[in-house]
């Protein structure tokens, strides 16, 4: 039975194997600690029986006015635990917190334009490509800003795609 719980400091010493995927960003310890301290409701880990970390999601809430939104900073599942709907469960948790607790208008995330499996998964979760961000990843690869409208965005204005790509310096939030 999988347990999903808040990420803890001890998990920082145990989750490296999940981050071995070349598409998963690895950050420094202070970055993870900041998320745990500021947005604990947005940082969860999935644990297998015996305590092995299966995956995690890390996010935050940010913006102002109609740009108030939940943001998925990272979601990843270890290769041996994929295709079990774990990423979907983690995403649903973050969306619920964004929608019901923080009353956000939408949830957004960035994904490498070349990461077709992830893009397809997000589309199945009702995310749409809002805009392309040129050279978002290491100044080389384009990123896609994908969004899902939440219940507060009745007219779904937050997910109307932009007609032109943007550069990273044009982004409102990083």
From TrEMBL:
<comment type="similarity">
    <text>Belongs to the acetyltransferase family. ARD1 subfamily.</text>
</comment>
<dbReference type="InterPro" id="IPR016181">
    <property type="entry name" value="Acyl_CoA_acyltransferase"/>
</dbReference>
<dbReference type="GO" id="GO:0031416">
    <property type="term" value="C:NatB complex"/>
</dbReference>
<keyword id="KW-0012">Acyltransferase</keyword>
<dbReference type="GO" id="GO:0004596">
    <property type="term" value="F:protein-N-terminal amino-acid acetyltransferase activity"/>
</dbReference>
<keyword id="KW-0808">Transferase</keyword>
<dbReference type="InterPro" id="IPR000182">
    <property type="entry name" value="GNAT_dom"/>
</dbReference>
<feature type="domain" description="N-acetyltransferase">
    <location>
        <begin position="2"/>
        <end position="151"/>
    </location>
</feature>
<protein>
    <recommendedName>
        <fullName>N-acetyltransferase domain-containing protein</fullName>
    </recommendedName>
</protein>
<dbReference type="InterPro" id="IPR051646">
    <property type="entry name" value="NatB_acetyltransferase_subunit"/>
</dbReference>
<dbReference type="Pfam" id="PF00583">
    <property type="entry name" value="Acetyltransf_1"/>
</dbReference>
